[in-house]
């Protein structure tokens, strides 16, 4: 069971459509010692959709090490390459609720403060010496770790760093210690690292690598810059994809208009902060409210009253309803098939080179956003997968059958759960084969042909599908 939490970062809109509200960076608000606790204790998944439970899953607060299914295969299979897509970790909001004090979150990294990770102190020490690192421009101008006593808008938090140190440690135990994916004398060309130009994605990628690599050698770390959140490189111009997006935005808008309780809630919140309802809605208050929830800080109050959990539940419940309708209408699927094609095409290209015995790019890491992972999940047919939480990870594993060396298979895992047989291209395969994975050719055929068939029309390649007339 899965419910979609609409992106607090860009929704599904391109970044050019996001208008941030200027905020003061002055230190204000209550001290951390006087924060009111609003954190329920999630133990087991409730039988009925609980908006607060769903939001806490999205927060992904670090706790005990999770069980995961990465790296599971019969003993006669050899791991050939691994391709990891992550969403950045927990961040400070990109929006502020008008006329309220910003949540006071400390974005310096303190080793003995919760959430804790045994590698946190060494990570800070190593990053502080990394000024000589060479990254593709403009990444070389970004800070390597968060370091502000009052978080800046969109900045990675200590929680976000710890989430990815944990991810890296987990993947190290599986892929390096167990499966020996990289040799002891691994070289820079055996890693492929790519990130968008945001400090939160670069820092998340560095935290994961620091947890993953046996020795973090700056001379071997080179991040490429990806200007598009879709990681479409030189294939970003796609008019039909944009048309799907416009139709999906229209669907979202009409659904919101029908929700009288949502409009009433926005109206109540607007009165509390003394701004027009339209201005409050444009400020995307759920983004800031999620920060309060994830960091266990009380919602803001003014002399007119307090924003409260009931307001939060109404907005969050609407998001769940929005995703139900989104799955039914299929407009987002059309957007996703075209939006995810370039990065999936790159991935199968790397896999195919690995099957030829090439030893470069054995481990690929894309440090990205919710608007990167969400279209990929949708395009793969993983309609039941939850919306990308903070520090979500989607992994493609490529395996070789030692008994039949010419046969290669893939496994796909989302947050440690094997979802291979939930994908549209491998749903039926396990009924015909005892192998716990999918033939690589199924994924290749899906990316090269079936993605376009799913769009309808007569297009057989990405360019034609993007420029189809009469859509």
From TrEMBL:
Its main location: Golgi. SUPFAM superfamilies: Phosphoglycerate mutase-like (SSF53254). InterPro entries: His_Pase_clade-2, His_PPase_superfam, Histidine_acid_phosphatase. It is a single-pass type II membrane protein. It is found in: Golgi apparatus membrane. Gene3D superfamilies: Phosphoglycerate mutase-like. GO terms for biological process: chondroitin sulfate proteoglycan biosynthetic process; glycosaminoglycan biosynthetic process. The keyword Cytoplasm does not apply. CDD domains: HP_HAP_like. It catalyses: 3-O-[beta-D-GlcA-(1->3)-beta-D-Gal-(1->3)-beta-D-Gal-(1->4)-beta-D-2-O-P-Xyl]-L-seryl-[protein] + H2O = 3-O-(beta-D-GlcA-(1->3)-beta-D-Gal-(1->3)-beta-D-Gal-(1->4)-beta-D-Xyl)-L-seryl-[protein] + phosphate. Keywords: Glycoprotein, Golgi apparatus, Hydrolase, Membrane, Signal-anchor, Transmembrane, Transmembrane helix. Belongs to the histidine acid phosphatase family. Interacts with B3GAT3; the interaction increases the 2-phosphoxylose phosphatase activity of PXYLP1 during completion of linkage region formation in a B3GAT3-mediated manner. This is 2-phosphoxylose phosphatase 1. It comes from Papio anubis (Olive baboon). The gene is PXYLP1.
